[in-house]
Every structure is written in C-alpha cells, then in structure tokens.
Design brief:
Layout (H helix, E strand, L loop, with lengths): L1 E10 L2 E11 L4 E5 L6 H9 L5 E9 L2 E2 L5 H6 L2 E4 L6 E5 H15 L7 H14 L10 E2 L5 H15 L3 E5 L7 H14 L5 E5 L5 H4 L4 E6 L2 E6 L1 H10 L2 H8 L1
Parallel strand pairs: 3-10, 3-11, 6-9, 9-10
Antiparallel strand pairs: 1-2, 1-4, 4-5, 7-8, 11-12
Helix pairs in contact: 3-5, 5-6
Length: 250
C-alpha cells in the first residue's frame, strides 16, 4: 500500500528526514512513535503532499505508483487521507456540505458521476451511527466551536465517509480524555479492513491499548531506528527514549 524508500526531506533548508524507510501493507496498522522533533508530523505532511517540505532524495509509492510529484488533492483522490493534529475551523461550511463536496470532487477525479443525494444521506447516517455522532453535529460549521474530542471525532467521521486506501492519523489522541479516545479508537478499529492501511502517529502508548498495531516503529533523528510489536511501545512507555539513543550511539 505504502512504500517509502530512503526518504530525505527538508524545510527552509533544514534537513528533517534523513533516509527514512517504511513499508505498509494493506490490512495493517502501523504505529510511529518517537521524541519531539524526530520528524513524525513531517513524515505525515510529506506523504499527504504538503508543499512547504522539499523531498531531496528517495521516493513515496502508493500501491506501486510514485506520488511524489502529485499535489495534495491528487493524492487525496488516489486514497491518501491525513487526520490533522490540529483541525482547522471553517465557519459557514457545515460538516455535511463539506463531506458532500469532498466525496463528489474525488468521484469527479475518478471519472464518476456525483453520488445521488439519497445514497449520500444514507452513507452519512450509517457512518455517523458507526461513530456515535449526534445528527445535530452534522449541521454545525466544520470544527467551529468544537471541543478537542469533537474535532478528532469529526476527523474520523471524514475518514469513514472518504474510505481512503491509506489513512494517516497524526497524534489523533492529543488533548483527548479517555471517553473521547475510546470513541475515536473504536471508530478507527471499525474502519480497518483488508483493503486499507492505517498509520498512527502518537506520543503515548495508551492509544495503542485501544488501537492495537501490527507494527510499532521508533522514529529518531529523521530515520526509523527500531521496529517491533506492541511490546516495543510498552517498553518505550516504561523506559523513555534514552536507551534507543544509547543503542544508536553505541
């Protein structure tokens, strides 16, 4: 689903990713952990196509296709989804209208007709029930006046509606209480399938109690330096990152 080969990337002349390699297969959940400044959010932004980052070496393949030269919206149309750490507010645009536009733009890019209104409403109803979302929530302006938990749940609702091939969740757990975390995680688990892949970027092992990853990777100084199972996340929670630094510098 996703193959990243020897990725080097910089922003404003500062190198952040320094030869990162990652392979994610369909049906898998991968968690990426690491200290602040390691390059986790940079990696998410680069895969999604954020323009301010410059890829200086290496490649990003989605289902074998090089997507490095594609704009962010073209990547989205091909099935890349990024859930933001800090979702933006868009006053005047309702959650429902935002979703209708997003889905129909993707369908248009794929040469399909707009989704009939009846089918769209049915899908909205099904996905909002799946994620325990109040219907009143859907007529509110996107993220305007939303609590942290509502913003994150709305991101997962967008993921449910868009049905991406590759979903990247950038610190979806930050700022969430346990109840909101459980609802968001349940949504992610319900959306996992053999046809998609999910990359979860997190600081905290607690999210991985709810979303159990197939693989955990440690990103440090612009590279993935260690990979393992969920046990690696437990070890990081217990020991911190100093032992990883010592291993690298040994």
């Amino acid at each position: 689903m996703l193959e990243i080969k020897d990725l080097h990337a910089s922003v404003e002349g500062k190198e952040i990713l320094k030869g990162l390699n990652l392979n994610v297969k369909a049906g898998e959940i991968h968690a990426i952990m690491g200290p602040n400044g390691a390059g986790k959010s940079t990696l998410a932004s680069i895969v999604a196509g954020k323009e301010e980052y410059e890829v200086t070496k290496g490649g990003i393949l989605l289902e074998g296709e090089d997507i490095e030269d594609l704009a962010a919206e073209e990547r989205a149309h091909k099935g890349v989804f990024l859930s933001f750490q800090y979702p933006v507010e868009i006053p005047g645009v309702t959650v429902t209208n935002f979703m209708k536009t997003a889905i129909n733009e993707t369908r248009k890019a794929q040469g399909l007709e707009e989704m009939p209104a009846k089918d769209m409403l049915k899908k909205i109803r099904e996905k909002s029930e799946l994620l325990e979302i109040d219907r009143k929530f859907l007529s509110r302006s996107l993220n305007e006046g939303f609590s942290g938990g509502e913003k994150k749940r709305n991101e997962i609702f967008q993921m449910a509606m868009m049905e991406p091939k590759l979903a990247i969740l950038d610190e979806t757990d930050s700022g969430l209480d346990i109840d909101a975390l459980r609802i968001v995680a349940n949504g992610v688990n319900k959306l996992k399938s053999e046809d998609n892949a999910i990359v979860v970027i997190t600081h905290y092992q607690r999210l991985l109690d709810y979303i159990v990853p197939d693989f955990v990777h440690v990103l440090y100084d612009g590279k993935i330096v260690k990979s393992g199972t969920k046990d690696l996340a437990l070890e990081l929670e217990e020991k911190g990152y100093d032992w990883i630094k010592e291993e690298i510098n040994a």
